Amino acid sequence: MKSITIEISDKVYDAFRDLLRRLPKGSFRIYDEDPDGLTAEEEKAWYAVHDKLEKKDLSDFDDWDDVKDTL
Question: Which branch of life, at top level (predicted)?
Fold first, then answer.
């Protein structure tokens, strides 16, 4: 993929995002500078990791010792 950075006015921001959403799925990624919150996928992944940590399952981490010290 190639990337560009643009700055657009607040007035057309939502219309521009709607235009991008009409492109084929997977053909672009939007990296917000000021995201309002987690996407549904990010939230699901966060809860999955959080649940594992609560169960003391550290299998998702390469360096278990660093993680164990923070629990």
Answer: Bacteria
